[in-house]
Amino acid sequence: MTSKQRLSLRDAAVPGTTGGVYTLIPAAIGFLSVIGVFIYSAVAQRAMPSGTDAILTACVTMLGVHTVRGTLADKANADNGLPVPLAEPPPVDPLPDQIPPPEP
């Protein structure tokens, strides 16, 4: 088994490709929740709840994990020569003056 075929512990512990949705979705929901609580607190002129700073720290950390994981996955794909999948371009019709005349 070559070194490229071996699954490292980091790859097994952090599944997913290009950052992983497992950190992006909870981080985005938590971050938007903190923004919502901030707006509510500003409108109601009340103090922010005591756990908001911990939630914000966790969300920013998860977004950082998503970014680092995506960067490492993109670098690994570039090192392995894996192409980025592109959609097939639509077929192009030739211009009328480029169509050969029909054969008799």
Q: Could you characterize the architecture of this molecule?
A:
The protein is mainly α and 104 residues long. The protein has a domain at 20-80. 56% of the residues lie in helices and 0% in strands. It is built from 3 helices and no strands. The chain has helices at residues 9-13, 21-44, 52-80. The radius of gyration is 25 Å and the shape is elongated. Residues 12-16 have low confidence and may be disordered.
Helix content: 55-70%
The computed structural class is mainly alpha
Distance between the termini: 63 Å
* CA gyration radius, whole angstroms: 25 Å
Regions with pLDDT < 50 over 5+ consecutive residues? 12-16
N-to-C series of helices and strands: HHH
Mean pLDDT: 74
Number of helices: 3
Strand content: under 5%
Q: Rough shape?
A: elongated
Main sheet? none
**Number of beta-strand segments:** 0
Biased composition (Pro residues): 86-104
Keywords: Membrane, Plasmid, Transmembrane, Transmembrane helix
Region (Disordered): 78-104
Transmembrane segments: 20-40
